[in-house]
């Protein structure tokens, strides 16, 4: 009888995804308690070849207890919870699902871009409060013809760019390296902000991108500029953003992610020019299902199951 590959499940998974995982792989769950983790690793550690993760912290001390580990497969796009440097040094493959969720996140991003420039929430309240009976809603701004800069042109950034171009926006981008695309490239986020009226953050969180959109970038964007963040909260200096909004040095912001989720500063929650959503970029049933199945397939492919 052939022994099936053993996978460590370090994530709470929907029933369908958990069933798909165990259909062709042996699975052991990562406990919460440190003593239970140690006991589990003593028993199963040397045999574990794959790791399924979502938000759990996967650090070097755990990886070092898994000498047979071949792959860490993440359910999500972000990899900031995984010690990817240690994985690379140890020859461990790391996969994510950014190629699966890119289209859904891009859809939400466009909604944010429209909501903040057309003041959708204000217009909604304008009707509900019957303010319309006392006057007209003020004119807003169009995405068509607007200069929009994207920070990070990976799977998600490129999906956003395609949608914005269809809407008539003029798109440019910044990233650590120039991509083989026909879009204007800027070699710093400050230069990109200076040249655009809207900045969209869609890059992964890392030591290099933490606080990337800080005071200098926000100042370069200017009082007629808009900031949209659908990547990770700490990429934007939240204090600098609040300061700029309060002083009228930024026209508005649309945020799906925050520095200390689920806690959002009152200054953002109450500001009339800020659009807020609770980190729902990939949050549809259809996309989350495909993300889970993609993670399972990555493990099966890597382990020959």
Describe the structure.
- It is a single chain.
- By secondary structure, the protein is α/β, with parallel strands linked by helices.
- The protein folds into two domains: 89 residues, 3-Layer(aba) Sandwich (Rossmann fold); 177 residues, Rossmann fold (3-Layer(aba) Sandwich), CATH 3.40.50.
- The protein is 39% helix and 16% strand.
- The protein is built from twelve helices and twelve strands.
- Strands 8-7-6-9-10-11-12 form a seven-stranded parallel sheet. The protein has a five-stranded parallel sheet with strand order 2-1-3-4-5.
- Helix 9 links the parallel strand 9 and strand 10.
- Helix 1 runs parallel beside helix 12, helix 5 packs across helix 7 and helix 8 runs parallel beside helix 9.
- The radius of gyration is 22 Å and the shape is elongated.
Short description:
By secondary structure, the chain is α/β, with parallel strands linked by helices. It has helices at 15-24, 34-44, 60-63, 84-89, 98-117, 120-128, 155-166, 189-195, 215-221, 238-246, 266-269, 285-303, and strands spanning 6-10, 26-29, 48-53, 71-74, 93-95, 147-151, 170-174, 185-186, 198-201, 226-229, 252-255, 274-276.
Which terms summarize this structure?
single chain, 305 residues, alpha/beta, Rossmann fold, 2 domains, seven-stranded parallel β-sheet, five-stranded parallel β-sheet, 16% strand
CATH class category of the largest domain: Alpha Beta
Instruction: Write down the domain tally.
Output: 2
CATH architecture of the largest domain: 3-Layer(aba) Sandwich
Query: Mind describing the biggest β-sheet?
Result: 7 strands, parallel
Which band does the percent of strand residues land in?
Answer: 15-25%
Question: What name does the CATH topology of the largest domain carry?
Answer: Rossmann fold
Instruction: Determine the CATH superfamily of the largest domain.
Output: NAD(P)-binding Rossmann-like Domain
Mean pLDDT: 97
N-to-C span? 14 Å
Helix fraction bin: 25-40%
Strand order of the largest sheet: 8-7-6-9-10-11-12
Structural class: alpha/beta
Number of helices: 12
The value of Rg in angstroms is 22 Å
* DSSP strand count: 12
Order of helices and strands: EHEHEHEHEHHEHEEHEHEHEHEH
């Amino acid at each position: 009888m052939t022994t099936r590959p053993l996978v460590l499940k370090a994530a709470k998974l929907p029933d369908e995804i958990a069933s798909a995982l165990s259909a062709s792989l042996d699975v052991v769950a990562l406990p919460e308690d440190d003593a239970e983790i140690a006991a589990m690793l003593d028993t199963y550690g040397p045999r574990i070849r794959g790791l399924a993760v979502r938000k759990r912290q996967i650090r070097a001390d755990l990886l070092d207890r898994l000498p047979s580990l071949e792959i860490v497969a993440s359910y999500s796009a972000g990899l900031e919870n995984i010690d990817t440097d240690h994985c690379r040094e140890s020859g461990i493959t790391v996969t994510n699902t950014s190629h699966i969720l890119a289209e859904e996140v891009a859809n939400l991003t466009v909604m944010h871009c429209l909501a903040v420039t057309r003041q959708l929430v204000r217009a909604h309240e304008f009707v509900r409060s019957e303010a319309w009976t006392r006057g007209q809603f003020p004119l807003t701004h169009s995405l068509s013809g607007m200069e929009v800069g994207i920070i990070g042109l990976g799977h998600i950034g490129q999906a956003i760019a395609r949608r914005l171009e269809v809407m008539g926006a003029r798109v440019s981008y910044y990233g650590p390296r120039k991509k083989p695309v026909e879009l204007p490239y800027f070699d710093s986020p400050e230069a990109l902000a200076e040249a655009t009226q809207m900045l969209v953050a869609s890059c992964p969180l890392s030591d290099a991108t933490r606080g990337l959109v800080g005071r200098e970038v926000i100042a370069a964007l200017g009082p007629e500029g808009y900031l949209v963040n659908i990547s990770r909260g700490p990429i934007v200096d939240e204090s600098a953003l609040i300061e700029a909004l309060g002083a009228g040095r930024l026209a508005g912001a649309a945020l799906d992610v925050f520095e200390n989720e689920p806690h959002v500063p009152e200054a953002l929650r109450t500001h009339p020019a800020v659009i807020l959503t609770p980190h729902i970029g990939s949050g549809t049933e259809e996309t989350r299902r495909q993300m889970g199945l993609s993670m399972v397939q990555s493990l099966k492919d890597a382990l020959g199951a």
